[in-house]
């Protein structure tokens, strides 16, 4: 039965309309806005005063007149229909099917804004997720229940990296497969087609739920898209006991939509014009990841954001880094060298890595090898800066060894094929083999017991091409002391 309609608007400004407040109206309530010809547009209350309601329209407001438009308050928040039938489906940013199939058959509706989680009910994330990508698994490990964003830049290969993570991610401690929830906000059509075709070709589409708000969709829709995706993830994880990997791209487009709404409402701007509540708004999304007592499922989040002008101090990556448990940073210089994935391991960080690696989880040498590789690669950058000043010929023998190590490290450890799925053992063996080209007295983070146990064996386990380069380099250094 249709409810009471209230006729007339006070103002229309872009996607925002203002009308007289109705009794019992609440923040986030959904409205049906009808124009002169009775066409219906969905709206949502985004602000309230004692006399007026501010409603954002999901779509165009053209054709809405102040006198002949009516609003029906639906007395409910925006909801998503949920069931296991979500998997393998493609929806628009508001949760409507766009894959040619009918609505999900279910009587269960969930508020897309989510429900507060008692902090005491959270379980600390500890299970290692193997992505098959050495620069992540070896040095910036992803843990089940973690939120680990990817900081990228325009034109970098974050889409390929994301698709690879979705294809390959698995938990070593059990046989469970991940269910993927993908939310695209303001992405181009060719990017959406890339993901759909990639998932179809590799056979994982049946385990993926996709929400796509394309670049030509109303920017206001981008505000709801990640909330729909996370609502679906919460249902599959906490009610159906599945391990869910949520990918949100591009969070920069989401924040731009927030800034647009804030400017329309004439709110006092914060840094670079973004609203002052940007931090709390992002936290609402990111904090919907994790594990909860009493549920076998989990939600692991990988938000992707393109840093404007590759500026990691921009408000979006800056605030995201505060809320999440680390970041994976893509580097334009590595990308220009042709290295894929172009992950810069030095500014990257996984704050939960220490709790998900080691004996019984990955391998007993993982922490030590990761720490030593990080220290060695850090010195590579110092030596490169020195070589740029005094010339490579003037470097000491030890510094030249670090230059050779850096080149091999980037080509063989950081670099791998888009469809290459490395086990954690392969990743650690490659790191051991590469560290063998450095002076042994420089490997101060590796105990003699670990060196004896793994170093020589690792050289036998790596590819013939890498083994040949290492042997040739060691021979050359011995001939020219």
TrEMBL record:
Belongs to the ATPase alpha/beta chains family. SUPFAM superfamilies: C-terminal domain of alpha and beta subunits of F1 ATP synthase, P-loop containing nucleoside triphosphate hydrolases. Residues 10-73 form the ATPase F1/V1/A1 complex alpha/beta subunit N-terminal domain. One of its GO terms (molecular function) is ATP binding. GO terms for biological process: proton motive force-driven plasma membrane ATP synthesis. Keywords: ATP synthesis, Hydrogen ion transport, Ion transport, Transport. PANTHER family: V-TYPE PROTON ATPASE SUBUNIT B. Residues 132-350 form the ATPase F1/V1/A1 complex alpha/beta subunit nucleotide-binding domain. Residues 355-454 form the ATP synthase A/B type C-terminal domain. InterPro entries: ATP-synt_VA_C, ATPase_F1/V1/A1_a/bsu_N, ATPase_F1/V1/A1_a/bsu_nucl-bd, P-loop_NTPase, V-ATPase_su_B/beta. This is V-type ATP synthase beta chain. Pfam families: ATP-synt_ab (PF00006), ATP-synt_ab_N (PF02874), ATP-synt_VA_C (PF22919). The keyword Chloroplast does not apply. Produces ATP from ADP in the presence of a proton gradient across the membrane. The V-type beta chain is a regulatory subunit.
């Amino acid at each position: 039965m249709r409810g009471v309609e209230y006729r007339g608007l006070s103002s229309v400004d872009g996607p925002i309309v203002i009308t007289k407040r109705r009794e019992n109206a609440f923040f986030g309530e959904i409205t049906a806005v009808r124009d002169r010809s009775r066409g219906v547009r969905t709206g949502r209350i985004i602000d309230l005063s004692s006399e007026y309601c501010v409603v954002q329209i999901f779509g165009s407001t053209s054709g809405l007149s102040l006198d002949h438009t009516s609003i029906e308050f639906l007395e409910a928040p925006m909801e998503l229909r949920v069931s296991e039938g979500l998997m393998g489906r493609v929806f628009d940013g508001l949760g409507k099917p766009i894959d040619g199939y009918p609505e999900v058959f279910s009587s269960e509706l969930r508020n897309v804004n989510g429900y507060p989680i008692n902090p005491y009910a959270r379980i600390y994330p500890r299970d290692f997720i193997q992505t098959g990508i050495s620069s992540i698994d070896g040095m910036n490990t992803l843990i089940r229940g973690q939120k680990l964003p990817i900081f990228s830049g325009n034109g970098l290969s974050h889409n390929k990296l994301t698709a690879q993570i979705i294809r390959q991610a698995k938990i070593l401690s059990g046989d469970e497969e991940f269910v993927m929830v993908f939310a695209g906000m303001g992405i181009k059509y060719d990017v959406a087609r890339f993901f759909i075709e990639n998932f179809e070709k590799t056979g994982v589409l049946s385990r993926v739920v996709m929400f796509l708000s394309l670049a030509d969709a109303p920017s206001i829709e981008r505000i709801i898209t990640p909330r729909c995706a996370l609502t679906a993830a919460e249902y599959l994880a906490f009610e159906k006991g599945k391990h869910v990997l949520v990918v949100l791209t591009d969070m920069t487009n989401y924040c731009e939509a927030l800034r647009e709404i804030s400017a329309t409402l004439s709110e006092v701007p914060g840094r670079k014009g973004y609203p002052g509540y940007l931090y709390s708004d992002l936290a609402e999304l990111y904090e919907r990841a994790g594990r909860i007592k009493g549920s076998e499922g989990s939600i692991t989040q990988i938000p992707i954001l393109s840093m404007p002008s590759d500026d990691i101090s921009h408000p979006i990556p800056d605030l995201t880094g505060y809320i999440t448990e680390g970041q994976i940073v893509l580097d334009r210089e590595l990308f220009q060298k042709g290295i894929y994935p172009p992950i810069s391991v030095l500014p990257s960080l996984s704050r939960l890595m220490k709790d998900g690696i080691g004996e019984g989880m990955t391998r007993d040498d993982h922490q030590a090898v990761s720490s030593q590789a990080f220290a060695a690669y850090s010195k590579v950058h110092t030596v490169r800066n020195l070589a740029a000043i005094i010339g490579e010929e003037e470097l000491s023998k030890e510094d030249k060894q670090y230059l050779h190590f850096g080149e091999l490290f980037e080509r063989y450890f950081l670099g791998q094929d888009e469809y290459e799925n490395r086990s954690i053992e392969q990743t650690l063996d490659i790191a051991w083999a590469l560290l063998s080209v450095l002076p042994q007295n420089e490997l101060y983070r590796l105990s003699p017991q670990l060196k004896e146990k793994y170093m020589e064996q690792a050289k036998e386990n790596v590819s013939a091409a890498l083994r040949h380069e290492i042997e040739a380099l060691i021979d050359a250094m011995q001939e020219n002391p």
